Fold these 2 entries.
Entry 1:
Amino acid sequence: MADVVLQDFSWDRVIRAVEKVKDRLLRATALLESAQIPYAVVGGNAVAAWVSRVDEAAVRNTQDVDLMLNRSDLERAKIAFEGGGFVYRHVKGIDMFLDGLNAKARDAVHIVFAEEKVRSEDLSALPGLDAVERNEGYQVVALESLVRMKLTSYRRKDQVHLLDMIDVGLIDATWPSRFPPELGERLQALIDDPEG
């Protein structure tokens, strides 16, 4: 652990970290709502919202806020976010709004675009914004769209999110047939062998 400065253990620090993400999500979605810009919460916060509907104890915290917008709304979103103190950056192909001038990329709202691929090698594009559900004052991507996004990205954390949804019963053995074969095979592999 060279050059790592360890602070004392602190539950207050842990709770503050979770609260900062929640606050950032609520502020960001309120700005979009106020500007009447269509959006959906995606990523780890969407998984947490869905999992919490079944079992709060199974909810996993996440370090950032991911939102899906239509690309045609990006300029309007820049105006809305900057009015709320966020700072727009485009870094390494990622559009984000930093939570203040001195914020890091981890302290940001990351943007992905509906009906576009996140990475060129992805198997499919993201869903549209026509399938969202309301959750405590903000909109979350619909469950099937979220599962498709996680199967498409399929990084280690996406696999863990899928396993969380399988574990609480949001996804079952009937789900793989809902997706194109390659995505369905990925889901079937997780259902068949959740321990890897």
Entry 2:
Amino acid sequence: MRVLIAGSSGFLGTALRERLAERGHDVVRLVRREAGPGESSWDPYAGRLDQEVVDTADVVVNLAGAPLLGNPHSGAWARRLRESRVVTTRLLAEAVARSHTSGVGGHPAYLAQNGSGWYGDHGATVLDEEAGTRGDAFFTELTRAWQDATTPAVDAGARVCVMRTPPVVDRRNPPFKQMWPLFRLGLGGRVGDGRQYFPVISTRDWVAAATHLVEGEGSGPFNMCCPTTPTHREFTDALAQRLGRRARLSVPARLVDVAAGRFGSEVVSSFRLEPAALQADGFEFADEDVRDVVATAARG
């Protein structure tokens, strides 16, 4: 298959395109510079995209988005986060809707990255893909707009998968790249009382799940998380123990709410996700729980 990927130079984009190429797929990268072999140039903010490269694709994958790390008190940072996700998603969705030359139903399939924060804080309630969204937290509202941007492709009848992705735990991937040495020094700890649920996934399972969706026939939202969602305390304990330390410290929730600005409520909110749609679609996880995820991350 020919797979067109936006955001192919990021951590997950690089891992996915390498896996797809290993499996024999023809991967075309969307780049915001002069295109080289296997690439196509685009400018999503100017609305510039080569329609032909979408028309000849079997699957379009959008992983584009500004990094989450930054100043959460900055309005410019918030706008970049939103626009880099919503604008790119909508432009590609509109191009998929216009395309009639390949893919299921005359259109390429469309896989659109999203976030697990879409659900909003649900406490200890188990959340499969049928659960609703609630609350007005910054990232929850952003993910709603992000998902809504896929509407042109959905309305056109394309196969659309919305990948609701939580933190991907890997010592090479921010913010865990910054967290790893702190935990190694015994300076890691939980946020608040640690009872909030904190969905995670390993890099290998995220890449395998995304590949499964590229090659499969599933559609709709997919929780891209390990089957058993840990609490934040369980996550920090698993990481500290893996590094031979104890997670003794804690950061008061009220302090996080102030320091993290727009992200404050996200950090202390609880998202007890389960990947029901992936499992129903026949996907098998290599890493079932947080200890497996952390062990895999430590080997990465």
